[in-house]
Write a structure and sequence with these properties.
single chain, 388 residues, alpha+beta, Butyryl-Coa Dehydrogenase, subunit A, domain 1, Butyryl-CoA Dehydrogenase, subunit A, domain 2, Butyryl-CoA Dehydrogenase, subunit A, domain 3, 3 domains, 4-stranded mixed beta sheet, 4-stranded antiparallel beta sheet, 11 helices, 18% strand, binds flavin-adenine dinucleotide
Length: 388
């Protein structure tokens, strides 16, 4: 029988994350909401403190200096980190797993500084004409001697304002496959400041401090040693990270719902109308019951997917169902929360409006809800169609 009761070691880690959030993150949250960005000195300070607390590489295996945690434990920690501002918590975590694919001189130039918290990266796939349909990207890299020349545009790239370099997915050719011609996609490591490479901030209504950016590449020359992995392996690299990324996103939604539910319970149990607390009205308390019920389901689905990832048995169905359910649950939970807070739910002086705004993006990034439904239904129906 599966038992997700945290072990003593997991409880200690969860407690240290909670203490870190209360001391180092929570005091700055309102300021980041007002500013809309994370000042550089604060970003550096949080990185340094996260390294000192031993939390910075919590998601990486020990061979890269990480904590070597299993995915269940990582999920339990994400439940906690998700309860604080994303613009700030992102500074507590080191480089993406994909960067561990650095080889040769890339290790000293990109990976090691990223592991030490000295340089940060962003991941650039999406383009104005290619979001869900990611294989249709148009940013192209053309070989020129020992260099490649990149032209094109990316948008919505998170943390581009804080990043020092970017993992950029480019088309480098075309391959014949059993499913017809397919674009050959290659990952390049591109430094901010390379001539012809421009990074511009975009304004989003959500996740303030964790900002999307627009990237343009106008004859940007990069050396062939800046290819991450092999030419044509761009999607293979990204797909290795896909399952863990979707589970992390579901865990993020679970953590946010926990926080929203706690704030809603406090409000409902203290706000009075018609001579009693509003928690005594079923129109209010049943909404809370519904959120709590869905939250339990999402927690278990997410932990189960993480456990299967640890066992090597995780499927697309596991990750898509938990990402879909948890992100849509968060949407319902924040909507109920605003309703229960009444007019105050929409005022900037309380944080509930922030959770409501931030919730929306989880149904869009890491594969929209429609794409998750497409994956789930195809995986379920394909065998039936083949047998029909
Ligand atoms: C704040 C933010 C941060 C982001 N950060 C990053 C980042 O760091 N790096 C990065 O590369 N990308 C990033 N993204 C991009 C994100 O992954 C895309 O927005 C997402 O993949 C959807 O693409 P799109 O916005 O172009 O929508 P589209 O693909 O244009 O979709 C529009 C609508 O059509 C629907 N649709 C499309 N295809 C189908 C289909 N086959 N069946 C049914 N419905 C369909 C979609 O579900 C959606 O409802 C970010 C996005 C946002 C909003």
């Amino acid at each position: 029988m599966l038992d997700f009761t945290p072990s003593n070691e997991q409880v200690m880690l969860i407690d240290s994350v909670r203490a870190f959030i209360e001391k180092e993150i929570r005091p700055h949250e309102d300021r980041i909401e007002e500013l809309g960005y994370v000042p550089e000195e604060l970003e550096k300070d949080i990185r340094r403190k996260s390294i000192e607390a031993g939390l910075y590489l919590r998601h990486l295996p020990e061979e890269w200096g990480g904590l070597g945690l299993d995915h269940v434990t990582q999920t339990l920690l994400t439940f906690e980190f998700a309860q604080a501002s994303s613009g700030l918590t992102v500074c507590t975590g080191g480089p993406t797993y994909i960067l561990t694919k650095c080889r040769g001189e890339q290790v000293e130039r990109y990976l090691n500084p990223a592991l030490r918290g000295e340089r940060a990266e962003a991941f650039a796939l999406t383009e104005p004409d290619a979001g869900s349909d990611a294989r249709n990207i148009k940013t192209r890299a053309v070989k020129d001697g020992k260099h490649w020349v990149i032209n094109g545009r990316k948008h919505f790239i998170s943390e581009g304002d804080l990043a020092d370099f970017f993992i950029v997915m480019c088309v480098t050719g075309e391959d014949e496959t059993p499913r017809g011609k397919q674009k050959r996609i290659t990952s390049f490591l591109v430094d901010k400041g390379t001539p012809g490479f421009d990074v511009r901030k975009m304004e989003a209504v959500c996740t303030r401090g964790y900002n999307p950016t627009d990237l343009t590449f106008d004859n940007v020359r990069v050396h062939e040693s800046q290819i991450l992995g092999e030419e044509g392996q761009g999607f293979d690299l990204a797909n290795e990270w896909l399952y863990a990324g979707r589970i992390a996103m579901a865990a993020y939604c679970v953590g946010q719902t926990r926080r929203v539910l706690a704030m809603t319970n406090d409000w409902a149990a203290s706000r009075k109308a018609f001579g009693q607390t509003i928690s005594r009205f079923q129109g209010v308390s049943f909404k809370i019951a519904d959120v709590a019920t869905e939250l339990r389901a999402a927690e278990l689905m997410t932990l189960n997917a993480a456990w299967k990832l640890d066992q090597g048995t995780c499927t697309r169905l596991d990750t898509s169902t938990c990402k879909l359910f948890a992100s849509e649950m968060l949407g319902r939970a924040t909507d109920h929360a605003v309703q229960i807070f009444g007019g105050m739910g929409l005022m900037m002086e309380l944080p509930i409006q922030r959770y409501w705004r931030d919730a929306r993006v989880h149904r869009i990034w890491e594969g929209t809800s429609e794409i998750q439904r497409h994956i789930i239904s195809r995986d379920l129906l394909r065998p039936h169609e083949q047998n029909a």
